[in-house]
Amino acid sequence: MANEENDPVVQEIDVYLAKSLAEKLYLFQYPVRPASMTYDDIPHLSAKIKPKQQKVELEMAIDTMNPNYCRSKGEQIALNVDGTCTDETSTYSTKLMDKQTFCSSQTTSNTSRYAAALYRKGELHLTPLHGILQLRPSFSYLDKADAKHREREAANEAGDSSQDEAEEDIKQITVRFSRPESEQARQRRVQSYEFLQKKHAEEPWVHLHYYGLRDSRSEHERQYLLCQGPGISENTELVKSPSEYLMMLMPPNIEEEKEKPMAPSNVLSMAQLRTLPLADQIKILMKNVKVMPFANLMSLLGLGTDSTSVLRCIQQVAMLVQGNWVVKSDILYPKDSSSPHSGVPAEVLCRGRDFVMWKFTQSRWVVRKEVATVTKLCAEDVKDFLEHMAVVRINKGWEFLLPYDEDFIKKHPDVVQRQHMLWMGIQAKLEKVYSLLKETVPKTAEGQSVPVMVVSGDQRVQAAKVKAQQNHLLLERELQGKKEQLQAMQASSGVHIKEEPVSEEEGEEEQGDKEEEPMDTSTCGSLRNKLVNGLPAVRAAGGDTLNGHPPTGCGEAPMARELRAFVEATFQRQFVLTLSELKRLFNMHLASLPPGHTLFSGISDRMLQDTVLAAGCKQILVPFPPQTAASPDEQKVFALWESGDMSDQHRQVLLEIFSKNYRVRRNLIQTRLNQECGEDLSKQEVDKVLKDCCVSYGGMWYLKGTVQS
């Protein structure tokens, strides 16, 4: 009471609510402009608005006569944007940057608490704001200038090439009919960023007329900020209690949430989530996260949550894989839904995803090609399955996303045993559907799944070395026996045969190969200069090889046959390859092979190059510039010399040209081909040999893999 007596009411002011401009009043803010420098006196050339989006664009003039204006820069910008020609589509008709555009962005979507106030004659008139917009300069003219620059560059590159190159080849067009869109796919498409951008672009611009601050029309419109009601003088005393009045000023958050835009489906509010039943919380979390350790799940559910109840609920919506929980397939693909990529029904998708999950119960690694071959699903669907629970590793396959959770396995053996029985049932169904071979999950004495052991690369190298040493000892013993047999043959036949020694250079070369390529553990690779089909490399006294045949190393071995088949098939498709590209293709080929294949025994760079040369290819010594950034493997270029078709002669002439220069113009290639072949080749014949062996860049032609950006 004492405070009220010391703070008397000085004046009472009537407050009125004006609604004439309630749906049209916007507040413009210019955050990059000082408050002392307004735009009131600057000519506004145009204005337009998209009412639904509350998006405004203003075009204002620039004072080109101001001493602070750089005229040369303005002319340069106009030239970059519009070029030399001027027409009605030009941005700057005066060939000078004489205007700028301002684009708006919303500061807040809820303006119900903001109003414009006008105090006049002891009365306060409030008009609610329809929107608060911040206007900033737009630099869209730079995008237009960049597009012009790219067009000019493309025109210059096209000018360097011959006119024949500019002609477009006739291409076959494949017509496909889209499948009926499912409701789930439609909802995803409607919520996508691309769809929203397209929807916003469809709203037409409404062009406006701008009136200055001191214009008579502006003064007329400002009168609408005053309450125009007929009963303005009537008694409208507020009869609300203080608490009700405070509630009106600050409504509860529920009303505010209704105004907020709907969040994406994968964004969760933890406060809202914890208001749901425990089973629904776990289902929503697993559907969004897809793979989660049990400890992480407990931390998300909050303090005081019973772990026994969580275990009971998690088994309804997820399966145990390597000690971690992976959401069930029928949760992600409910009944009557279909694939957005291929239109395959949910039942087939669930079966394919269950196969991927089951494979991860057997191993840390899964190969996508194997999954696609077994399930007969498209690559996009298989990729979706793997992305849910794994991460791709280059040249290795897909590795399970989380490490093995031994802690959970030890604490909950009953849950592990129950999940193991469920996986046995799923395995039986998969074997029946996909006609798989019988594969059982290894068990411990308690019947639970054995954790998947992860073998590092170093351990594999060490194991391969030990195995190679064992093979080497066995071969040495066999060699000793063969040597004794040869000596006996020498004594009985009278033919003088001597063992060819290994030179010091060859020995050093082999040692160098071992240092560069630690994965080369093949017995054929390490003894290629010492063995011929298991026998020592021997030579007659006259210098000829035994029986008239040169030593072929391990050429008859299955590994050599497989390697040669790969090389021949690859060069029949590519014709020209660098060593680095060939190694990359070989690694991809290895990733597609089943475990235990003979090519996994170790292939060195030397063996790969020898096989390429033995397959009818030649190394092209391309004269790279001294300052080139190409690696040594990129500078080793191999080409198929003879493929058996009519283009062999043309290809050989082309490769001889590139043995003198690493880049050549097309007209030079055309002239040389006509001279060597004795006839004028057609455009189709020249195009074929160029597309087989070369690529075009900047008006010049390069051998494939040798172009340097």
TrEMBL record:
<dbReference type="GO" id="GO:0042797">
    <property type="term" value="P:tRNA transcription by RNA polymerase III"/>
</dbReference>
<dbReference type="GO" id="GO:0005666">
    <property type="term" value="C:RNA polymerase III complex"/>
</dbReference>
<feature type="domain" description="DNA-directed RNA polymerase III subunit RPC5 C-terminal">
    <location>
        <begin position="446"/>
        <end position="709"/>
    </location>
</feature>
<dbReference type="Pfam" id="PF04801">
    <property type="entry name" value="RPC5"/>
</dbReference>
<dbReference type="InterPro" id="IPR045576">
    <property type="entry name" value="RPC5_C"/>
</dbReference>
<feature type="compositionally biased region" description="Acidic residues">
    <location>
        <begin position="502"/>
        <end position="519"/>
    </location>
</feature>
<dbReference type="Pfam" id="PF19725">
    <property type="entry name" value="RPC5_C"/>
</dbReference>
<dbReference type="InterPro" id="IPR006886">
    <property type="entry name" value="RNA_pol_III_Rpc5"/>
</dbReference>
<protein>
    <recommendedName>
        <fullName>DNA-directed RNA polymerase III subunit RPC5 C-terminal domain-containing protein</fullName>
    </recommendedName>
</protein>
<feature type="region of interest" description="Disordered">
    <location>
        <begin position="146"/>
        <end position="169"/>
    </location>
</feature>
<feature type="region of interest" description="Disordered">
    <location>
        <begin position="485"/>
        <end position="527"/>
    </location>
</feature>
<feature type="compositionally biased region" description="Basic and acidic residues">
    <location>
        <begin position="146"/>
        <end position="155"/>
    </location>
</feature>
